[in-house]
Each structure stands twice: as C-alpha cells, then as structure tokens.
Amino acid sequence: MSKRNQLIFLLGIFIVTAVLHLSVRFFSLTIDPVILLVSRWASLCGVIGYGVYKKTLTTWILISMLIGIEVGHDAPAFALNLQVLSKIFLKMIKTIIAPLLFGTLVVGIAGHSNLKQVGRMGWKSILYFEVVTTIALFIGLLAINFSQAGAGIDSTNVTAGEIPQVAEQGWKDIVLHIFPENIAKSVVEGQVLQIVVFSILFGIGLAMLSEEKKRPMLNFAESLSETMFKFTNIIMYFAPVGVGAAIAYTVGHMGIGILVNLFYLLATLYVALILFLLVVLFPIALIIKLPIKKFIRAIAEPVSIAFATTSSEAALPKAMLAMEKFGVPRKIVAFVMPTGYSFNLDGTTLYLSLASIFVAQAAGIHLDIGQQLLIVFTLMLTSKGVAGVPRASLVILLGTVTSFGLPVWPVFIILGIDELMDMARTAVNVIGNCLATVVIAKWEGEFDKAVDVE
User: Fold this and answer.
1) Three-state SS for 410?
2) For residues 139 and 351, is the Cβ–Cβ distance under 8 A?
3) Which of 2, 180, 235, 269 is the most exposed, having the fewest neighbouring CB atoms within 10 Å of its CB?
4) Among 8, 1, 79, 9, which Cα is nearest to 42's?
C-alpha cells in the first residue's frame, strides 16, 4: 500500500471511530461498548502500522501518546502502575543535564576565549527574555478577562487537595538562588541556573590560563560533552515508553471526564497559548527569516517529550542537540537554552497571570486594572525564580494569591487539572527557548546560513 493510500485508510478508520463515539455522547445512540473498544484499538493498530512504516522517533513518541491515552482510559488501575516507567525516563534524563551543561559551556567559553561575546550574549538574552515573557503575561491577563472562566464557580463542590508548602521569596532570595554555594548540592537538587553560573565562571577561569595548562581540561570538557550527546541518543530510544507511560498515568489518575468538567478553564489557557505562539513567536520567526518547516521538524521530538512528561528538563538535552543540528553554534545553545529555563518560561508566565485572575474571579472579587497590572508586575519578578522547584508554577501562584489577600480555595480547582495545563505550558516553554537560541545566534551573526536553504 502506498503512503498516500495508507494515510487515507488511517483517516477513514479515525473518522468511523470518531463518529461512533460522538453519536454515543451527543445523540444518545446505543452502541455496544465492545464495538467502541474494538474501533479504538483498530485505529491504534493502524497508527502502529504507520509507525513501523515511518520509522522515526518523533512518530513513535506521538503514537505512544495515543496508546497511553487509550490504556489510561481502558485500564486505569494498570495505567497507574506505569508511572514507574516514566520516572525511570525522567531520572535518566536528569543524569545528563549537569555534565552536558558543564561540558558544552566550558568548551563554548574557554575553547574560543571570547569573553566579550559571553557578556554580549548575556545582555541580549536577558533583554529578549524579559520582552517576550512580559508580553506573555499580558496575553494571559487579556485571555482570562475575556473568557471570565472563573466567574460563577460554586465553592461548595471544591474538595481539598495536597498543595505544596509555599516559602515566601523576596528579590534578595531570588538573586541569591542564582549563585551556587556547593556545586555538588546544585547538581543533586537539579538547580540548572546555578550549574550554568558555575560552568560559566569555570569556563572564564579556564580561558585565562596558558594553552599548556588549559588544553587538558578543555579536551576533557569536549569529550564529556560529546559523550553526553551520545548518551542522550541512547536514552531517547526509551522515550516512547517513558512518554506513553506518563500519558497513561495522567489519564488513569485523572480520567478523561475532567476535561469536560473544567473545559472552559483549560480552553482559555490553550487558546491563550496558541494566541501567544501566533502573535508573538511566529512574527519573531518571520522577522529573523526562520525556516519554519525545518524548525518545526527540529523541535517536534523535544516538544512532544515536554508535553507528555510535563518536564522541561526532560526535553532539554534533546532540544540542545536539535538546535545544534539546526544550525545554532553549540556555545550559543549551551548558554541561551539553560539560561532560558529560568528567565524565558513563556508558557509558565502566561499561565501565572491567567491563573491569578481566575482565582479572583472564582472568589467573586473584582480587581480593577491597576490591581491586575500590579499582579502582573509582581509576577514579572517572582516568575524568574521558579527554576528547579517541583510544581514551581503552583508554588509561585500560591505565593502571589496569598500576598494579594485572595482566597486559596480556587487553587484547588486548578490543582485538579494542573497536569493537563502543565502539558501545554511546558511545551510552549520549550518552543520559546528553542526559538530564543536562533534569535541570539542570528543577532550574533553566527547562525548557519546553509540551514536556511530548503
């Protein structure tokens, strides 16, 4: 069967399956559940066949997400046990990050001995990050004011859940959090920004040595970075299993029904994130004359991983490798991308402004434009300190809500679907950071022009 006919056949199976399920839900048509089950798995078998034909990692990651959704829906008890597979994948990814960042940054700085460029990339990156994340905050603000997703929510149906402890962070705490006191501790805790700062200072110190003293350590760092990229390729073979298990656990744990119950809030966030991609990131891509199709193909794998695992860290090594293959020099990728994980979380910042106003709407508290802007400007600072904190956006949201005297109970509503919201905002975080590396590379005049040719 030709590729075109295969796609037509798969589309036909999907249409039949969709019609059957929509008929049951919206037209009260009675269909044997076994028939519905068989139709879904027939669709999946067709997709698996396409994956065997296509033989690409991206295709298998997407297929594993579909299989994970089905397993979580049909066998939720079994799906809950699959979380261990996703945790194995995340643990293996986290072992890569520290040595990879150290090796690539040290080689990028000391290998070229261009310390002025490091400073130049620093201020350009911070400027770009601040502009883009500020726009994201305002888009989130506009979206929730337009949809009024929090209005009319009944607090009597809200059940308490487990919310992480919130430690108040002032600007001094945020600044101190950037600098490591013990690099081993930073590695253990997964403090990406602290690892970056240590690696930059180490690279600068190494660059100041004579060639004789510098060369052994430089060779070690170069070998280390190359080894970790190969290590990444090995771990990525397990990515479909880890991603599928993560999706299965999420659906098995929460159920698909929650999508219907809180559709309005979810839709507001997803539409706002799509709007941000279209009106902010897409125009930036056009301005820098980015080859859009090639860029989408390059980021497909890391974005899929980020979406399924709700972990930016899980996508970091693959995203760095993808951007280097795309034409961004390794020294720029190694500097901009991990820095962006603390200062350029576009999806997270948009979510925080949206969620903060949602809390006020749910509680029936009217905030005038001045109060809303004050919340936004507060988030401009506090959202920069979320790196390395589990469920960091939820922690920052709670801190913001309590500091402005808003009730906490609406956060329980968000907590119920936080994993589903986290998928979208994490994917946008990765897209934004991948684009940022290209922007800085173009700004520095070091983007590989050969990539621009289709």
Assistant:
1) helix
2) no
3) 2
4) 9
Name, in order, each residue with C-beta under 8 angstroms of 320's C-beta and a sequence gap of 6 or more.
100, 104, 333, 334, 337
- The domains found in the chain, sorted by start residue, are 3-77 (no CATH), 83-452 (1.10.3860.10)
- Kindly tell me the sign of the dihedral angle through the C-alpha atoms of 70, 72, 78, 84: positive
Orientation of helix 83-110 relative to helix 312-326, angle to 10°: 50
- Classify residue 405 as left (phi > 0), alpha (psi -120 to 50) or beta: left
**Tokens, residue 405:** 């005297």
Q: Which residues fall within 8 angstroms of residue 31, CB to CB, at 6 or more apart?
A: 20, 23, 24
| Maximum pairwise Cα distance, the chain | 80
DSSP letter string, 34-103: HHHHHHHHHHHHHHHHHHHHH--HHHHHHHHHHHHHHHHHH-HHHHHTTHHHHHHHHHHHHHHHHHHHHH
Q: What is the pLDDT of residues 77-118, one digit of tens each?
A: 888 888 888 888 878 877 887 888 788 878 877 876 566 777
Tokens of 446: 């070091």
Mean pLDDT of the chain: 79
Q: Of all residues in the chain, what percent carry a pLDDT higher than 90?
A: 16
Separation between Cα atoms, residue 246 and residue 267, nearest integer Å: 22
- As given in the structure block, the two tokens for residue 336 are 């901009």
- Residues near 243 by beta carbon (within 8 Å), at least 6 away in sequence: 61, 64, 65, 68, 86, 89, 304, 305, 308, 309
